[in-house]
Amino acid sequence: MRKTYETDAGETEESLRTWLSGAKKVVIAGVGSSLRRDDFVGVQIVKNLRNKVSGNVSLLECETVPESFLEPISDFKPTHVLIIDAAILNLRPGASRLVKPEKIAEVPVSTHILPLSLFSEYLTEMMGAKVALLAIQPKETSFGEGLTEELKKTARDLTDLLIKILPKQKPYSSREPNGCKDGNNPDNL
Question: With the CA atoms of 90, 92, 97 and 102 taken in that order, what torsion angle do they form, in degrees rounded to the nearest 10?
C-alpha cells in the first residue's frame, strides 16, 4: 500500500518557516532531470531564485547528481541545506511537503544516482547542517522537456515563498567590534 501525504500550501509555508528559524546560511539544492518534464521542478525553482536572494543563500543546480556538489556545499558552511525535488507523494500535482532527514528514505524519487537519504545523512553528519527535502508532487515525469502548467505555477509560488522567508543579508552595523569608525559604510562615502 502506498503512503499518502496530506498537505497544503499553508502547511508547507509553516513547516518551512519553522525549519528555517535561526538559519544563518542556507544552501538550496535543486535536484531533477531536465529531460523528465516535472522532475526538473527543483532545478527550476533554483533558477527562479537567481539574483533574488541574499549572499547568505547559495543556489545550486544539482540536476541528477547532488553528490557532485558536496565540496561547494561544504565550502559555504551552511547552517541549513534545503533539497528541492519532485517526489511521488500521492497528492495532487504541484502539492508540496517538507520532509525531515529521517523520513527522506520513505519518499520515492527516482532519477538520482545516489539516494537522497544518503546525501542528506552525509550533510547532517559531516557538516552539522540541518537538512530537509522540499518534495513536490509531479504530474508528468515521462521523457520530454518543460514543466506542466501545474508545476510551473508551483515553481512560481514556492519561489515567491522562499524569497520571503530565506535569511536576508545582515544590515550593516555602524558599531564596529574593534572600535573602528564605519569608514566602509557606503552611507558615509
Answer: 10
pTM of the predicted protein model: 0.81
Looking at residue 143, the DSSP 8-state letter turns out to be S
Segment 110-138, tens digit of pLDDT? 555 556 777 777 787 888 899 999 999 99
- Domains and their CATH numbers in the chain: 9-167 (3.40.50.1450)
**4 vs 12, 67, 87, 175, CA distance in Å?**
16, 28, 12, 52
Nearest partner of 30 among 40, 41, 38, 42, judged by Cα: 42
64 contacts: CB under 8 Å, gap ≥ 6:
31, 32, 33, 111, 112, 113
